[in-house]
Amino acid sequence: MSEAASHSTATSPAPPPVAPSTAGLLTSLEPLLREWLPRQRWFAGKGRPVTGFSLVAATELLPVGAAKAGLLHLLVRAHQPLVPSQGAPAHPGDCYQLLLGVRETLPPRLAPALIGHVAEGPLAGRTVYEGLHDPRLADVLLEALRSKARVGELRCERDMRCDIPEGLVPRLATAEQSNSSLVYGDTFILKLFRRVVPGANPDLELPLKLSRENCPRVPAPVAWMVADLGRAGDPDGHHVLGVLQPFLHGAADGWELALSMLSKGEDFTAEARALGRATAEVHTALTRALPTATLCRPQIAALVEGMTERLEAAAQAVPALRPYAPGLHTAFEALSALATEGSTWTAQRIHGDLHLGQCLRSPSGEWSLIDFEGEPSKPLAERRMPQPVARDIAGMLRSFDYAAHSLQPPAADWATACRAAYCSGYADVAGVDPRTDPVLLRAYETDKAVYEVLYEARHRPDWLPVPLAAVHRLATDPCTDTTP
């Protein structure tokens, strides 16, 4: 697609009118953003040039003319040429949330946050930087949430039953992720979504629903920030920008904990079983909070078609996968055959991207599930669709396998024991062991392993043997590890 086409109003909605005070703002920032934005961990369009920007919204959270620093909140759409794909509709470009600090000069402590120096426009002569690195500006965000501020198109809401004290010292979380997080005094964590889309973000929607079901396995939202860019009540104009939740101080990341215990030769099955129980508690609460659906032959046919297409595309892109493709196809064919015979499955809202890194264990030993956004690369409507719980379970089973392969030689028995313990723990709460539906579980685990092969081939070739080992198992011995 040409640069002109990427800006065509025939393929993307026109941004709302920009206030006169922002005239020329984006033009002056564009040279800086072209260099800075693609380098960010959370930028989704890596590998494709940025052909232009359009300003969706601009709000001064702290006046740019403030004595020390101003804070400018921008929603900016980055236009990039698309990689052609079968039947893919034209894409208007991803919309990113930027929080820009503005100063006359940048103190040395903020040097790593530098974006650049503005040469023209309303910010001419000033220095622009990543505002989240500046504690003074991070304070502005927490105060906006605490006071339920409304500034321009931005609106903050909160659960008034929860106290948000003043004076909490902020720090920017350093873990690599597809969003940005600020921790306030080891009391709260503010997750700011970098790539924002209109509609109900599951990372706010599902924890709110679970809190009303008194589910203790998911930190309940304390406050949240949204942008209302359309007409009142129009879901296409509602953008969730950030969620404030309790910070689980002292909690251990499930992935890091598993690797630590594995490297010491310590048994992880008790933790895996407890994690299975926690997963089932969340799934059970979601069935109470939200409608479920029944998947019959037409729905399973669509599911199998998607899995098959992903396998064929991955095999085309990764030659090492091709010898296993016939065996992997049988996983999807078996699921289709059951549907043809009249089998049905229950679908519900799930986590959508469950693995050890999305789980935290408190010092008391309790597990929590976090990050309900789902796979950010998927369309929002797809992420909010009811799905079988087997998809979440398959994701966790693959995560145990990944941890086991962090050692050389791989700790295959460790993974097998953890997988069995996790499923048994799930059955303790749900009353049904996921392994009693081996065809569905194998199909989802196969689909996940195919995704992993493609990801590792593109981004971490040294890790490619990990999913290929699973592919070998799933293609040649489909009954392994699927019965309780």
Give a verbal description of the structure.
The protein is built from 13 helices and 18 strands. The chain has helices spanning 3-6, 25-36, 135-146, 202-212, 254-263, 269-289, 297-317, 325-340, 380-383, 390-404, 412-430, 438-459, 465-476, and strands at residues 52-62, 70-79, 94-103, 114-117, 127-130, 150-151, 154-158, 170-172, 180-184, 188-192, 195-196, 223-228, 238-246, 252-253, 293-295, 345-347, 359-361, 367-369. The strands form 4 sheets. The protein has a 7-stranded antiparallel β-sheet, with helices on one face. Helix 7 (297-317) packs parallel to helix 12, helix 8 (325-340) packs antiparallel against helix 12 (438-459) and helix 12 (438-459) runs antiparallel to helix 13 (465-476).
